Amino acid sequence: MIQFLLNQELRSEHALDPNLTVLNYLREHVGKSGTKEGCASGDCGACTVVVGELQTDDAGREHIRYRSLNSCLTFVSSLHGKQLISVEDLKHKGELHSVQKAMVECHGSQCGFCTPGFVMSLFALQKNSDAPDHAKAHEALAGNLCRCTGYRPILAAAEQSCCGKQPDQFDAREADTIARLKAIAPTDIGELNSGDKRCLVPLTVADLADLYDAYPQARLLAGGTDLALEVTQFHRTLPVMIYVGNVAEMKRIETFEDRVEIGAATALSDCYEALNAEYPDFGELLHRFASLQIRNQGTLGGNIGNASPIGDSPPLLIALGAQVVLCKGETRRTLNLEDYFIDYKVTARQESEFIEKIIVPRASAEQLFRAYKVSKRLDDDISAVCAAFNLRVENGVITDARMAFGGMAAIPKRAAHCEAALIGAPFNNAVVERACAALAQDFTPLSDFRASKEYRLLSAQNLLRKYFIELQTPHIETRVTAYV
């Protein structure tokens, strides 16, 4: 059984289809049809809902953290122990919520199909903002598409709803909601079981290891932003899933003298602070990683485990010399991330083995790390090419080079010939040109609807040139630039 709050209503579910998304649960099982399906792939934001989770801050104070999610990519099992809020829950005692009023008063809606998603993103923004901030508003709404109104009035609604905000019914009920969430906090393995399909929800790494050993055919569900597409886009059935999002040990971020350890189930939005503190370019890239709804849900371990050749984080992690800790039963092994990827969607992971955490070396003054993403849109788009460069230069001579690319091969991969052309040479334009030529030996990229092979190779070479120019003239640095 799993339990969660539907606004303030306790829901206990056991026999639901584990392949059921929160979107379809709301619309088909509880009659809340305000949440819309626009794309069923997490791109349009029409299905946005807000999930509240019990959190404890550094001072030991308990509070509820509200986050926007794409309900079309969220399986119901991930709600275990949480609070689900949909657009119907905002109106209170016959009065519209302040974010709904702002949308009306700023004329932020025309056809209205996208409006519930915008309202929920604005609600989450309001809950997480103390003052209007143009950049935060853009970030909060980047995952919501409007095809008729235009964004100016919606941004005006964001400013109005966040400026001088007043307490609402959720603030008034916070203490009671905290108590109710504590009362349903999971204490044992949860399960949804429809007879022919099941999803298991462990709470510890040990339980996860045991379950995965017992069900090696199971699909591991973290954020589900990619896995859910198999159901919503390809109409496949997932007979057995194991949801790892309630394993607290895999959601920790720990900083040591020489490294940062990030649990594999840590949401990308939670990774931002730690990674940005060490590597600002990593932080900049995370701002451009899909949308806020996806970053609130997708995990760093999932982005690696998915083994996509165009995943944004692996090239950066490889260039930084990151490692993954793989767990199987009581056995653990540590593997350099570059050795984890073998071929397209093929990894070094063994049966019943899973990524427990990612180890990222801390930054040093000698490192010259930069990252770049080439995509057709600045926000919410997939890379055509993603490049990460990490050099050490002493007395004008390159002593170490780690150059990694995504979108250039069947796997995220280092550029061995390019690195060899750099190491031991002076860091000058002639050497960089020689290294650019060597990239043609490292990669034979494919052409697809995102970019041609010629474009990809030339872009990779130009990014290396850009890296060199920015290091020579840091005042023109632009970081993680999009190219159209």
TrEMBL record:
PROSITE patterns linked: 2FE2S_FER_1, 2FE2S_FER_2, FAD_PCMH
UniProt key word Iron: yes
GO molecular function, one term: xanthine dehydrogenase activity
InterPro entries to which the protein is assigned, alphabetical: 2Fe-2S-bd, 2Fe-2S-bd_dom_sf, 2Fe-2S_ferredoxin-like_sf, 2Fe-2S_ferredoxin-type, 2Fe2S_fd_BS, Ald_Oxase/xanthine_DH-like, Beta-grasp_dom_sf, CO_DH_flav_C
Keywords: FAD, Flavoprotein, Iron, Metal-binding, Oxidoreductase
Family matches, as CDD domains: fer2
Boundaries of every 2Fe-2S ferredoxin-type domain copy: 1-90
All copies of domain FAD-binding PCMH-type, residue ranges: 192-365
Transmembrane segments: none
Family matches, as NCBIfam families: xanthine_xdhA
Protein name, entry field: Xanthine dehydrogenase small subunit
